[in-house]
């Protein structure tokens, strides 16, 4: 296993950070590494808001569901899907542009995710830890107002970055056979593989919490399909100029 694969397979979410700032030069280097990710048609449909103001960090921590590490991390970044810059560039070049296409929403969201993951790997290679914050989509309108995001820009997720002050175990992943399929989507063994993974995660949670967390993967999924559906996102995205067509 080469060092890059070893680094990728050692990823953990870090939620406790040392009181140590990230040098500006390093942060810029990480963002440049992020920019080197693949991007659809070279659109580069993303922008990053580096939230420095402590009061804004506290507000976002609250808006994201009371995640205190948003405020305490060495740096906090908000990754935004951004079709404003590219659309306006095409318009200035003489195109009669069409806005609000669902494909534009997909391109911008995927570009943003790819860029962020490049940045994440670069950060971990420098000894930093990180945690993605999808909770900013709990209140995307308030976050957008706070960061003064214009139309055709929306906040996809945040990222806490900093020097780790904890050393959690690597969380298990689904069995390879459940996600790597050949020639067609074959789900015949999925139920057995998920049951096997539920047992793995049950043991993991019990060991990690000293017996205080008695659950498994399937149980943990329930809120994502019941209480965490974020039904407001469709209207919010349409209000931002995305996915209207």
SSE diagram, text form:
Elements: H1 3-8, H2 24-35, E1 46-50, H3 54-63, H4 69-72, E2 75-82, H5 84-92, H6 102-125, E3 129-133, H7 140-146, E4 153-162, H8 176-179, H9 190-209, H10 217-221, H11 232-239
Antiparallel strand pairs: 1-2, 2-4, 3-4
Describe this structure in words.
The protein is of the alpha+beta class. It has a domain at 3-170: NADH Oxidase (3-Layer(aba) Sandwich), CATH 3.40.109.10. The chain contains 11 helices and 4 strands; from the N terminus they run H-H-E-H-H-E-H-H-E-H-E-H-H-H-H. The chain has helices at residues 3-8, 24-35, 54-63, 69-72, 84-92, 102-125, 140-146, 176-179, 190-209, 217-221, 232-239; strands at 46-50, 75-82, 129-133, 153-162. Strands 1-2-4-3 form a 4-stranded antiparallel sheet, with helices on both faces. Helix 2 (24-35) crosses helix 6. The longest helix has 24 residues, at 102-125. The N and C termini lie far apart (46 Å). One of its GO terms (molecular function) is oxidoreductase activity.
